[in-house]
Amino acid sequence: MMGNAKFWAATSTNGIDFRKIHTGLPAMIIDMLADIIVDSFNKVTITTNEKAQKDWEEIAKDNDFKEIIKQSIIDVFVEHDGAFKISYDTEISKYPIIEFYSGSKVEFERTRGRITAVIFKNYYDKKDCTYVLKERYDKKSITYKLYKNENECKLSDLEETKDLKEITDNTFVMAVPMMFNKSKKFKGRGQSIIEKKIDAFDSFDEVWSQWIDAIRDNKTQTYIPEDLLPQDENGNYLKPNTFDRRFTKIGSSLQEDKGSQITRENSDFDYEGMLQSYITALDLCLQGLISPSTLGIDVKKLDNADAQREKEKATQYTRGKVLDVLEKVIPKVVCIALMAYDKARNKTAGEYEATVDFKEYANPSFEATVETVSKARPNQNIMSVEKAVDTMYGDSLTEEEKEEEVKRIKEEQGIIEKPEPSLF
Question: Do 20 and 131 share a structural domain?
Answer without folding.
Answer: yes
